[in-house]
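Example 5.3 — GTPase Obg
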Amino acid sequence: MKFIDEARIEVIAGDGGNGCASFLREKFRPFGGPDGGDGGKGGSIYVVADRNINTLVDFRYSKTHHGKDGEPGRGSDCYGKGAEDVYLRMPVGTLIIDDVNGEIVADLTEHGQSELLAKGGEGGWGNIHFKTSTNRAPRQKTEGKEGERRTLRLELKVLADVGLLGMPNAGKSTFITAVSNAKPKIADYPFTTLHPNLGVVRVSHERSFVIADIPGLIEGASEGLGLGHQFLRHLARTGLLLHIVDLSSFETDVDPVKEAKALVKELEKYDEELLNKPRWIVLNKLDVLDEAERKKRVKDFVKRMAWKGPVFEISALNREGCQELINAIYLHLEEKRHSAQRAEETSMTEEARGISSIDPEDPRFKILED
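Solution (predicted structure tokens):
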């Protein structure tokens, strides 16, 4: 299936049915009075997050989605039937934005989450509602309201715990293949990865996390070189970035430090928030170096980068050092989850204390004496 992570669609909710102006006609009841029913409501359009879908390809070719109109009211106090609502199923991680004003309409982060995209129009009133003691034969009725109409921009941001960054051919696809169940294309030329790949990393039978591999960045991506920045959005929801660096190249015109710094600059141009995410350096392809050369290159890289964060030495090809990296990632993610949970519990406790503690000087709680 083709991977599509952007689309534009138009959603048009159904109009409400018109109300009816009618009068009762029965034998022996010449003045039966008004009996015009209301129109039915128009069909609304909802979106539902579905974890079994991983692309927006259905919305690339089906751009307009209509809700049905409500039926008009009829005589004999018959109300029009309301139209059924339309449900569009989209991948978990889809961000839905109003293309006119830029407002975020919905952010689908959980399976089964449902959000309203366009509300159907209300049905019009029949003349039965306008009967009064002084107006016993009303001919008024109202028309149904129009349904909402919106042009929406869909952006898919894959949900992953860890994201991979690196230049083309740094070994990202080999790494995700070595540690997870993902099977991306691997070759000895740049840009073999053309769309994001997700893999589940199993630390044990009951412990796992999700890792995302995106196409490599090159210097000048912000100007559209290579594949540009179009896939960086998929790292926005990750909690940790792994910067994969190839230290094996013996070519004099390739400087790993220069490439690493260029990638950091591209991150800064794209999104300051993404740049400030926790980021670890992972030095790859060290199996082709002897022990002395390996130590020399690692030390030189860290010194010239002035890097203060974690550094891991691996070989994705023979999986050397991969298990230690996986364990460290899982511990980091668990600590983040526990910290967030503790912060939430503390916030709830403080809120409860604020509700239970009453200041007797607060005029809102002052007891009025007789």
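Remark. The longest strand covers residues 149-156.
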